[in-house]
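Entry:
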Amino acid sequence: MLSLKFSSAAAQGLSTPPYIAAMVLMFLEGLISDRLRLRYPMLYFNALLTITGLCCLVWAKQPGVQYMGAVFATAGPSANLPTVMVFQANNIRGTWKRAFSSASMIALGGMGGITGSLVFRSRDAPKYLPGIYCCMTANGVILLVTTAMVIHFVLRNRAANQGRLVIENLPYFRYTI
């Protein structure tokens, strides 16, 4: 954001900490989600962190709060990448189905770069509101889709535990939520 008013040298130096924060968040969430065997809380947290960061970045008046928003808006989506990949890998059985799903997710994720170049237009500077709204909407979709998947997985696991269903033709398989 141009409203941060940092010199070019300071901006270069300040571009690294958000990615360090993202790396730390990824590792912590990986450890926590593996211990708890839960993925969805991290997806929720990261989407809400991103939305919060975007709001701070655009609507806060203090440069420090805006910079914190940049950290959150970088860490949230960066940490969601490995979480989403593990979430799908845990819940899709079969080598070919898993490979196809992973490739599809990576391809669709790559389309985000194309979308970004279309919604973050120079004429919308300095706040880039259409792009910000698009990112917020995408994170809202993450929240909705995650909720739908968790409900679906919980219901299927419950049916499997009651002996009414065999998931993926594997009697002891249960979805990881």
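The mean pLDDT is 94.
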